[in-house]
Amino acid sequence: MTPSGTSILVGIAASPGIAIGRCWSVDRRRVRTPKRRLAPEEVDAELARLRTALELSDLQLSEVKEKVERAEGAPGTAEHTAIIDMHRMMLKDEMLVLEAQRLVREDRLNAEWAVKRAVRKIKSAFHEHADEYFKERRADVDYVGERIIKNLLGQAPDVDEVPPEGAIVVAHDLSPADTALLLHERKVAAFVTDAGAKTSHTAIVARALEVPAVVGVGRITTLASRGDWIVVDGSRGVVVINPTPGERADYEAAQARYRAEETELLRTRDLPARTQDDVTVRLAGNIEFAEEVPSLLSHGGEAVGLYRTEFLFLGRSDLPTEEEHYQDYRRVLEALAPRPVTIRTFDLGGDKLPAGMRVHAENPALGLRAIRYCLRQPDLFRSQLRALLRASVHGNLRIMFPMISGVAELRAARKALDDARADLEREGVPLKAGIPVGIMIELPSAAMIADRLAKECAFFSIGTNDLIQYTIGIDRQNKDVAYLYKPLHLAVLRLLKQICDAGRAANIPVSMCGEMAGEPVNALVLLGLGVSELSMNGPSIPFVKRIVRAARAADGRALLERLLSLTVADDIEREVRTEMERRFPGLLEDEANVGPVSG
Ligand code: PEP
Ligand code: MG
Questions:
Q1: Which residues of 80-107 are buried (b: 16+ CB within 10 A; e: fewer)?
Q2: For residue 131, what pLDDT is reported?
Q3: Whether the CB of 513 sits within 6 Å of ligand 1
Q4: What is the DSSP string of 113-157?
Q5: Which of 440, 468, 499 to mutate to test the pocket of ligand 1 (most atoms within 8 A of CB)?
Q6: Ligand 1 atom nearest residue 286's Cα
Q7: How do beta strands 190-193 and 282-287 pair?
Q8: Best of 288, 342, 513 to mutate for ligand 1, by most ligand atoms within 8 A of CB?
């Protein structure tokens, strides 16, 4: 805290943009759980009390769901209702209900205590899975447990007060149901939470709705009070509580610059991403939910380059049906038609599985995931392939298999697709002919035999996130080795060139959908490689387009040649930055300097 009463906090930049508004703190502090041993004759009444609290909790959640559904069409509705459904399933989960009942009956704990103990047991099971996603799901179990306990105590469990429009919502953690209510009822300006990570639902929902958010701040709730002025810089993960008049003016100017910049960038929304020397690159979007499509289109996305369908699984504890998959794919295909939509089959496995289907694996990233998992689970794979084929008549579908390591795996996946097609044809279901089938190139083995793979598929999409992980041998989620995560490492560059050359020789398009595709500083290098489609988060598209339109692909090729003659990744990075600053003076600063705080 500075002498002026201003605090500057740094967290995780979860959703970009700058917001300035009054703090609306939501008290999500844990309830105190009373603990008491029951007399034997009290057990039955306690079990009845528990049952009532479970029923009440379910009723309340169904009311929340109804509210959300009334706002149907608002972005984020489907993922919100899926999350609420997941919570309702938890209320019926044996691990929770039977365990709590057992504790009441056998250990004679009061119901509140029994629920708390059952929740702790489930969470410790989750804890064994280091995966970020499942750490986040522990918050969901807490949320459900807290709701039951509050109902046992006769307390109102909901965030019943509605924040005023333009408020900055500050909370220790926001449950998905809280987020759903806050976002659907009012237009809040931003979110800040003590807890959370990039993959938390609050972060995903905020990005989908383009609400700036900073999460993982640590102690915002102890420093900010209702009514305080707060600045949220969601692009940098900075939060300023009670800014000085000077700071506030600086941020207002930064906000105006950010908005002007966005408007300026969006002027070219409907223009092609064509270089000065007439090379056109398709700028597409990566999505995790169908709800992200409007934002993608409003940023000038020309296609969906990667739909990560496994997200449909991860927000729930049961398996989606073929019909649910079909409806979801159909929605995205129709929204984009006639533009192409590349739907990637499930990248599930390791810890990325619904509860009840998880198995412990020492090295999940090297284990049974993605296509390996699907080939091992033919029924699950078949239901997705059938849904995709059925949806094919509603738009311009491209099907993509993830984590292909070699030709045999590609053939096995194609055979599963052919079998699904044959079944549907026998059933007389209308299907589209000639759906392009492509693969992610995200394993070094695939990159090295790209020439052979290219003969057996219609397109490549380079997944740099995994390709870099597996090439340099670093866990992409481990911050201790993050310093080694270098897209411009010579080994990565050589592989990228090999993939693109193989694609060109076989005359198949090569796309890139890893994070590298959306980094403006790399745009010239990617033009040099001859990538035909770049797929990224919707909001990154306008900036990348600006660079593509100002660039010459021939300059990119010359730059690439120079880079391949260098050796050390730092030297390669420096060369790229110098070239970009020389060719596009001030442009990269525009991207980096939206806020007044440097760093
Ligand atoms: C990648 O690996 O680059 C990719 C796009 O896939 P994901 O990030 O979903 O693993
Ligand atoms: Mg990947």
A1: bbbbbbbbbebbebebbbebbbebbeee
A2: 55
A3: yes
A4: HHHHHHHHHHHHHHHT---HHHHHHHHHHHHHHHHHHHHHHT---
A5: 440
A6: 5
A7: unpaired
A8: 513
| Contact criterion met (CB below 8 Å) for 194 and 213 | no
**For 312-325, b where at least 16 C-beta lie within 10 A, e where not — what string?**
bbbbbbebbebeeb
CA 347 – ligand 1 centroid, Å:
9
Say yes or no: CB of residue 310 within 6 Å of ligand 1. no
CB 487 near ligand 1, within 6 Å? no
Strand 18-26, strand 304-308: pairing? unpaired
Please write the tens of the pLDDT for every residue from 533-588: 999 988 889 999 999 999 999 999 999 999 999 999 999 999 999 999 999 987 77
- What end-to-end distance do the CA atoms of the chain give, in Å? 20
Q: Where are the beta strands (DSSP E) in 361-416?
A: 396-401
Q: Are 156 and 134 in contact (CB under 8 A)?
A: no
CA of 365 to the centre of ligand 2 (A): 10
| Centroid of ligand 1 to alpha carbon of 466 (angstroms) | 6
Q: What is the pLDDT of residue 483?
A: 84
Residue in 583, 509, 510, 497 with CA at minimum distance from that of residue 546: 583
Q: Which ligand is nearest to the CA of 467?
A: 1
Residue 3: the pLDDT is 40
Element spanning 471, H or E:
helix 464-472
DSSP string, 23-48: EEEE--PPPP----BPPGGGHHHHHH
For ligand 1, atom 1, name the residue with the nearest CA: 463
Which one is predicted more confidently, 91 or 31? Answer: 91
Q: How far apart are CA 303 and CA 284, in angstroms?
A: 5
Distance CA 180, CA 441 (A): 36
Cα 403 to ligand 2 centre (Å): 7
Distance CA 293, CA 81 (A): 18
Rg of the Cα atoms in the chain: 25
Cβ-contact 409, 368 below 8 angstroms: no
d(CA 476, CA 482): 7
Residue 292 pLDDT > 80, yes or no?
Answer: yes
Residue 24: CB atoms within 10 A of its CB come to 24
**292 C-alpha to center of ligand 2: Å?**
19
Distance CA 517, CA 522 (A): 7
- The overall average pLDDT reported for the chain is 86
Give the atom of ligand 1 at the shortest distance from the alpha carbon of 513.
Answer: 5
41-53 pLDDT, tens digit each = 999 999 999 999 9
What is the distance between the alpha carbons of residues 521 and 565, in angstroms, rounded to a whole number?
19
* Burial class (CB within 10 angstroms; exposed 0-12, middle 13-18, buried 19+) of 301: buried
- For the annotated catalytic residues, the residue numbers are 201, 513
pLDDT digits (tens, 9 = 90+) for 181-234: 666 555 789 999 888 766 566 676 677 677 899 988 888 888 898 889 999 999
pLDDT in tens, 254-273: 999 888 888 888 888 889 99
